[in-house]
Amino acid sequence: xxxxxxxxxxxxxxxxxxxxxxxxxxxxxxxxxxSYREDYERLLSSGLYDELATAGLLVSHEETDRALAxxxxxxxxxxxxxxxxxxxxxxxxxxxxxxxxLATLEIQKRxxxxxxxxxDASAYNIxxxxxxxxxxxxxxxxxxxxxxxxxxxRQFCQHFLAPLALMAxxxxxxxxxxxxxxxxxxxxxxxRLLGWRSRLSPRLLIHIHxxxxxxxxxxxxxxxxxxxxxxxxxxxxxxxxxxxxxTAAVQGLRWRPAETEWGEYHSFTNYSDGAFxxxxxxxxxxxxxxxxxTVWDLGANQGEFTRLAADAGRFSVAFDIDxxxxxxxxxxxxxxxxxxILPLVMDLTNPSPMLGWANxxxxxxxxxxxxxxxxxxxxxxxxxxxxxxxxxxxxxFLASLGEDLIVEFVPKEDSQVQILLSTREDVFLDYDEASFxxxxxxxxxxxxxxxxxxxxxxxxxxxxx
Amino acid sequence: xxxxxxxxxxxAGTGSLALQFVVGGLLGCAFMIKVFWRSxxxxxxxxxxxxxxxxxxxxxxxxxxxx
Lengths: 465, 67
Prior knowledge:
The structure holds 2 protein chains of 2 kinds. Chain A is an alpha/beta fold.
């Protein structure tokens, strides 16, 4: 590979002076700056990189030609394994958040044993790859300096412990707060929202409530002389004690979801067994015909149909609005050790936007595509009737995401649609199969259409024009 | 590049650093007692021939008394 194309820096990779990610000729590369040389060499020579990469905790990479560096100051260029999809903490269910937090602490423990520590603990540095949490920032390590406290303690509590505690003790939807507070939930806010009962937990008392109070009492320190913390030393046992306490705090949080409508999917579908089996067969058939490498299943619930794609070796993301359904899907991924499926929480009527610095740091949903094939099964009526989105706009949205589309049309006569209409006036005069085909037909070529037996529904395979 | 900037490119927060000094001793002691206790239990279990005793590191990961 030669440096033929001009490099394009990844928008989220600008904070750490140790280096940054960039793309050249469509290949993802990471420049390591001279200032990080000592730590990088220690990461490799200590065996920490090999240990973590082998354990599937740190993204693997290979060193490549330094001439590919994005700028002449680059000391080294590495090519990390590229992941098929980047997800964000505000899209994770409780179990994923917890797994990401525990992976971060496990990495910290292993690093400490090799004389290094994590210099940051951003939840955005963790991705889910092959069904497991993975640290994707190779430059997150620094040499442990005797007596120095953990620089990333505050960040860990804001990025992981606070949202987890709020999800477990207040409401699982609190995970969405990560979308508002992109550098983690402020601890004073978390402390207030958690309420007094959480103070009965010694670990939450220390790491959230007392932590918030200490931040408050030291907030003026920058205006005066050193607060006296820089000259003090934190012993190794104390350092490990803090990590151990954080681990126990995270492990001790449990979320027992109450059943929601979508958490009990099968109780709320109106398929006969025969129709359900036929839908399975048709989806498999359409997938085989489209033959995608990547699939996004929108409104996937617990991933029943996503698995038709994933089990055939296609990397599949299963989006659903319901954190209970996503939690159950994640549970299946864990218990079956599934590697090709990534469940995520996503409200399709308000999907993840561009966020962060200059609105470029975290991608919206569509820029993370395009995907080879979108599946939208039993979804259209929720978008068009529950959310009043015209077919033309639904079609445009789906066309913006991917090439092929497997979509199910659910007519007004269907009992599920009737339930949606039972509490509101039917203002959807154009909601019929002919309008659906006309509007979708403007953007997609309809390749296949099959009615689903014992129902009035139909399944389509379409290809973007 | 100034190394002090490099090692602390995120804001650690003086309150967060101070808290580690305040609680570090206590949590460090608790951690040492836990490690010692597990090691003791592990040895005792081996001594009395109990099967399937998990090593201390593994049991550590399964700790997690509910908050």
